[in-house]
Amino acid sequence: MKARLRRLLGTPLHPLLERDIYLSHRDLPEVLDRYERGDPFFLYTGRGPSGEVHLAHLLPFELSSYLQQKLGVEFWVQVTDDEKFLFQGALSLEETRRLGRENLLDLLALGFDPKKTHILFDTASIRSLYPLALKVAKRVTYSTAKAVFGFTPQNNIGSIFFTAIQSVPAFLPSARAGRPVPCLIPCGIDQDPHFRITRDVAEPLGYPKPALIHNRLLPGLSGEEKMSSSAERKDGVIFLNDPPEEVDRKLSRAFTGGRASVEEQRRLGANPEVCSVWALWRSRFAPDPKEFAEITRTCRSGELLCGECKRRLIPRVQQFLGEHARRRADVERWVDSAIVDGPPGGTA
Q1: pTM of the model
Q2: Are residues 313 and 201 both part of a single domain?
Q3: Closest Cα partner for 213 from 55, 41, 11?
Q4: Which of 334, 312, 324, 336 is nearest to 241 (CA)?
Q5: CB-CB contact of 33 with 45 (8 Å)
Q6: What cellular component GO annotations does this protein have (predicted)?
Q7: How do residues 115-170 score in pLDDT, each as one tens digit?
Q8: Whether residue 52 sits in one domain with residue 139
């Protein structure tokens, strides 16, 4: 698959593809076949605004930005302020709306074409979402939703209906165009179950099954399998609004694949595959393939110690966050105009 992507996108591929951070897919060849026959696909991904954006949240948006720039395709993003309100009891609807718009600024600052970027902000765009959501909901039984998502009698009825809302962006461009338009969804591998129902109902509704491309989960800085911003894990993530001194503090304490002593590491080398610092180098902070290969080689050989590796990474992350903040200000000028049916009340 990578050889085919190189022919289409050029060499080298984005590090997320070249280094197998995107590791699996559903029906990606079919989408590429249609694209090469002159039938472009559109991209769809989303964000559930439960808190501030951190580095792991960027993965599907980075790939989407790259593909839009390379192929000129349309990009649809769903902001599920309703979902987070329904599933997280501590969040008010006003707070999920506020977070949704703030999150959008962070995510779109990665670089998107405003003329080809469309935002479905659920509570604001419901007029466009609801008719198709009803058609999806009519095809999905409660037993199916319960089997896929593990609903219990304690779940509110809004959370049970939400899967229909989440399916709509995969079909809406086709409905608007009056013809089948292929869809590609970049997402974390843990999100795949959410789109099983979407794929199951697509063809009965007269739409193409959306294709998916899955990324690995970026590990937390404290050694967790998944970078998570839950209250007890704030030190395990780099937020996009972290000040330079906070980046320094978090990365200086980050979990690595090093040995118990300098002498042992010099002799045996470290294990980059379990290291949260190496995972950051791999994802975006060593775009040069030669530099990344050298970091990996010297880590394994014991030439590069963990402290020095962290000291090299810290200014890269700080620079990225500083540049990102400047790009974020540019998005402010056009984000509201890209929201289907207009921005949500109280956020414009």
Answers
A1: 0.94
A2: no
A3: 41
A4: 324
A5: no
A6: cytoplasm
A7: 999 999 999 999 999 999 999 999 999 999 999 999 999 999 999 999 999 999 99
A8: yes
